[in-house]
Amino acid sequence: MVLLLTGSIEGAKRQVYDFIGEFTAYDWLWKDSMQAAYEAFKARAPTIEDFENEIRKYVDVEQQISKISPVQNIGALSLETAPLKNSLRSEAAAWKAQYAQNLHAQAVEALEDVLSWMRATNSSLKREVKDLDDVRSTVGILNEVRARESMVDDYLGPVEDMYNLLSAYEVRLDKEEIDAVSDLRYSWRKTLQVPNEMNAMMALTQTLTLTLTLTLTLTLTLTLTRCPTR
Known about the structure:
The chain is mainly α.
């Protein structure tokens, strides 16, 4: 009887150890340095796809942990895994949050760069043109706008992609950010309207100047023609 009982206990002990050993697949969650891992990731100059792959990896880990049975019966033992599962999920969520938060910081910076450029462009083009320097400055801005107009997706696409990814993984965003991104292309079109109006105005000014010049030239020619020679 003692031998049977001893064998039963040893067998249960091995099963418990085997069961606990399954959780070692997640020990990197608390053993590895999140900061060091992110610094190595950042050193690779990651793309938006790289961020998505990393975030998806931790989402998958969270889902795997969620599928672990809340109770494991081994012989007469009943092992409750809920506390361990909750701890592991919290660790996985922390890893995911690190990448999401850093991506969010990049998205905010990129969005502000675009919005700042649009505000500065609108302000510059609405200034009164008083002298030749103002004309040169305006022409330079118009050229820059035309260059960006043909590459709109290169400027707005990355911003939209980052925010779409953040939204897909339910990262909390400020309403002001969400509204700004939603209106981004509309704001861009409004910004382009100002240069178009400026182009039209400058074209009209050039036409009027040319007309006035021709008129003065013709008037002077007629005057000189009618003047009697002495």
